[in-house]
Amino acid sequence: MVAGAYKATPIRNLEVETLVPPLDLYLNKRVADFEARLDQSGLQVVMDDARLKILRRFGKRGRRGCRRMSLNAATKAFKPTDLDQTQEAIGAWQAQGNSPDEVVTQEWKNRFLASQRGRSLADIQGQTLLEAKEPKEIEKALRKYLRRHKKLRKEESSLLIQARTGRIGLRKFLFLRRVPSIATPYCECGEEEETVYHVLKGCANNPGAYELQRKEGPTDALIRRLQEGDRVRPILRWLMGRLPEYRLALELATD
């Protein structure tokens, strides 16, 4: 899945939106799955014997000392490699007695909840999805959440992620990114900072929001639908008309 998000979007939000765990956890899981296949095929013993011969031959203690060393002792004679560190992490996973998928989900949950610094819709929804106790329940909720994107067009999916993360082409975000033409984060109405909530609430500069509310419900209901990804197409279509970068996509979608 291609998110279509701004570069300034927090990685933790993109991981949840696209159902991609933190990169180091993902790669460790791939190594763990590979080693499990080696164990089942019987090749792990052959590889350990070959590795031990190499370590004994080139170990720091000299040839005579290394000949009597075990695999673990010979391994310690060298500076740990990235693979050694990965295998150490995998060993800690196996000690927990869970499958690699369950451990990755649990570690992902712990990191996300520990790094809560923002209060965007994506942060709130991510916390809701990851707060389940059982890793299998978390994975089920994440997959259900991701499936909502399948009902949307590409531009709608991108805009949904931008709206939920707050990294969207409205004045508050553009001002924070120091876009030259944006001198203030406030809406042209002068009442509040221009955010998704503000434009959906309606103001002198966004009178069309009142018609959207009449058809789809009050502002809080619209925000909740964006957060959960439920029946969001009418809201996204209205936001597209509000954002210049999406007007061509809106014209193509309505032709």
Give a description of the structure.
The protein has helices at residues 11-18, 23-41, 43-58, 63-67, 71-76, 82-95, 100-114, 121-130, 135-147, 154-165, 171-176, 196-201, 208-216, 219-228, 233-242, 247-254. With 255 residues, the protein is an all-alpha fold. The mean pLDDT is 82. The chain has two domains: 11-147, no CATH class; 152-254, no CATH class.
Mean pLDDT over the full residue set? 82
The main pleated sheet reads as: none
C-alpha Rg, in Å?
25 Å
Find the structural class using helix and strand composition: mainly alpha
First-residue to last-residue Cα separation: 25 Å
Low-confidence stretches: none
Give me the strand/helix succession.
HHHHHHHHHHHHHHHH
List the domain count as a whole number.
Answer: 2
Q: Which descriptor suits the 3D outline?
A: elongated
Quick structural overview:
The protein is mainly α. It has helices at residues 11-18, 23-41, 43-58, 63-67, 71-76, 82-95, 100-114, 121-130, 135-147, 154-165, 171-176, 196-201, 208-216, 219-228, 233-242, 247-254.
